[in-house]
Amino acid sequence: MSRIRLYVDHPLGAGQTVPLIREQAHYLFGVMRLGEGAEVLLFNGRDGEWSARVAEAGKRGGTLACAAQTRPLAPPPDLWLLFAPVKKARTDFIVEKAVEMGAARLCPVQTEFTNSERIRRDRLQAHAVEAAEQCGATTVPEVADLARLDRLLDGWDPSRRIMLCDETRAGDDAALPAEPGPWAILIGPEGGFSDAERARLAALPFTRPVALGPRILRADTAAVAALTLWQTQLGDW
Amino acid sequence: MSRIRLYVDHPLGAGQTVPLIREQAHYLFGVMRLGEGAEVLLFNGRDGEWSARVAEAGKRGGTLACAAQTRPLAPPPDLWLLFAPVKKARTDFIVEKAVEMGAARLCPVQTEFTNSERIRRDRLQAHAVEAAEQCGATTVPEVADLARLDRLLDGWDPSRRIMLCDETRAGDDAALPAEPGPWAILIGPEGGFSDAERARLAALPFTRPVALGPRILRADTAAVAALTLWQTQLGDW
């Protein structure tokens, strides 16, 4: 049985006392039935992973006592995932999978053919925390606010390459150019990009088109496939 | 708006009349509100993809008239996916994703640490049909009955290599040996393989271990990542 991992927004270090918020206390002591002395693993996105013991267990709070570092900080590569939100459950899956696969920042984008006009950023961020707790990550990617794709491209830092996944380009290669530095993956919406978007993306000097096979992939499948291609060719796999 | 694609278990060819079963008639005429003369795309796993027009539309049945072949038969490579069933929704996702990614056969396997002792094979097969309809495939992979991993290995054809995805081998490479011929991907259960299973798998002459990155992937994420690795190195991408 693997130990419980918890993300906390608190400094971690030898002898550090970590206070628990109500939801965490409920989870540890109410749901998981941990008692005083029980061991958990903590990470905060800055100090690596630490083992800690339950010092005080209460219904509405409690404290943990940090013991020793169990793993150093291991942030993912500087890779963003830009995706058009789809139906709720599948958007949740995209967030979960991007964390497992090792993206550093998740950017929901609104394209011309995106149905969803708003997202619950806080809900998606909570999903990212949960995925990081489960997959053994020591950081949690930030979920950005929904942004319009055209505006995002207006202010784009050209040193960040964009791996462009476009289902109309099935004849292309799955190989990426070996360009170091920051990258982003852009997954199109389920309705595809508009002609105007496609023309603009193709003309930008920092986009690199890749093909994701001969079949049409759903957005969440495409996200994992694209992240696999990037991680094995340029990332930390 | 893309056209409706329908899997039918009936020969397809120029001038061929295709009868619809009750569920298909309900979907086409009740849900999608197609009328006589409307065009759909058909595939049966043998004759490629054909356009067809609604000849008769009824509440409990109807017929389609095959017109012209729109795509040749394009079966996926001879790649099986062996996976331990997980929770219902995630098992459904594994089936859907394996079809999109291009697996030829889906084999649920029971390992020592697999919780699920039975599956609904017919339900999973229906999911595979639906995924094939949506992703543009011209074949539907067969979903096999649940089999015990040890018995499956007892009768294994050694000419079929097994790409072994084991989360305890994070230091390994993601590269596959360029061995042609039939392959299978084996995704471990969420609780991991037992020591006995791991020892046996490592000793078999047809297993090839690969690593899927430094983070722990859920079974459905691992399936897509492993299929991506295989398809880009040895498959049809």
* CATH classification, class level of the largest domain in chain A: Alpha Beta
**The CATH architecture of the largest domain in chain A:** 3-Layer(aba) Sandwich
Number of distinct beta strands of chain A: 12
What is the count of distinct domains of chain A?
2
**H and E order of chain A:** EEHEEEEHEHEEHEEHEH
Query: Which class do the helix and strand fractions of chain A yield?
Result: alpha/beta
Helix percent band of chain A = 25-40%
Number of helices of chain A: 6
In CATH terms, the superfamily of the largest domain in chain A is SPOUT methyltransferase, trefoil knot domain
**What is the fold named in CATH at topology level of the largest domain in chain A?**
Alpha/beta knot
What's the story with the biggest beta sheet of chain A? Answer: 7 strands, parallel
General form of chain A: elongated
Provide mean pLDDT of chain A, rounded: 93
Low-confidence stretches of chain A: none
